[in-house]
Amino acid sequence: MPSVLVVEDDPSIRQSLIEVLTEHGHVVRSTGDGFGALREVTRARVDAVVLDLGLPDLDGAEALRMIRGISSVPVLVATARDDEAEIINLLNAGADDYLVKPFSGGQLIARLSAVLRRTGQLPGAAGSAGIGAAPTSDPLHPVLVGELAVDPGARTAHLAGRELRLTRREFDLLAFLAHHCGHVVSKRRLLTEVWREPYVDDQTVDVHLSSLRRKLGESAASPRYLLTVRGVGIKLVAPR
Fold first, then answer.
1. Angle formed by the axes of helices 34-43 and 60-70, nearest 10°
2. Peptide bond connecting 102 to the previous residue in cis, omega within 30 degrees of 0
3. What is the rounded CA–CA span in Å between residue 222 and residue 154?
């Protein structure tokens, strides 16, 4: 599924949006202010933005105009403002759609899916060839992240030229994260797409991540490749 940037200054609302989007298979990034949104749109692969208007540093309408100055990424405005003239101004300023707060998780997913279909960001939509949650379109394509090389086709992984001795599940987990390099992946999604078993809990993921970290020469307290985003999931990145 496409990656979504949530821009919301209220921590509890932001967490709720993240949980809804993650449960529906989206890869989620988030920030609490307008300039953070601009940084994320500039440096990260984002397929859609859910933008709150009541931001602490920039009015959301100004943030929208600034985003439009650097990107054509679809923007779904989430606002408590229901003035028709203002909504029309937002749409004219480049918003692709809007939701008036409060709204349900179902409304959010439906509106977001409609926007993504119109803009060709969903698989099967016009112009969407190869576009999905992963930065690499071929799951068997080798991935190089820093000194870590993962080859799903050959089922091999090397760190600084040294082959890693991984179990089948550890390799599947590493390959999936490599295919989604730079994107936060929820534990629930890992259970669904890597384990593919109905009765497995989050602790299973934690155990395998801990083992994988040891073999990568790191720990949860001192991560290099596997970063935990608290309350959201895990992502594979190149060490700085």
1. 20
2. yes
3. 30
Residue 61 has which token pair? 């309408």
The model's pLDDT over 190-234, given as tens digits with 9 standing for 90+, comes to 888 888 765 667 788 889 999 999 999 999 999 999 999 887 889
Residue by residue, DSSP assigns 69-105 as HH----EEEEES---HHHHHHHHHHT-SEEEESS--H
3-state helix, strand, coil in the chain (%, to 5): 40, 20, 40
In 7-59, which residue ranges form alpha helices assigned H by DSSP? 11-23, 34-43
**So what's the architecture of 143-236 in CATH?**
Orthogonal Bundle (1.10)
Whole-model pTM?
0.52
Q: Spell out the residues 6+ positions from residue 77 whose beta carbon is closer than 8 angstroms to its own.
A: 51, 53, 60, 64, 90, 95, 97, 98, 99
CATH number of 3-118: 3.40.50.2300
Query: How long a stretch of residues is the chain?
Result: 240
* Strands across the sheet containing 148-151: 143-145, 148-151, 156-159, 162-163
Task: Of 40, 38, 39, give the one whose Cα is nearest residue 28.
Answer: 40
The residues spanned by each domain of the chain are 3-118, 143-236
Q: What is the DSSP letter of 195?
A: I
Long-range contacts of 80-85 (CB under 8 A, 24+ apart): 80/53, 80/54, 81/53
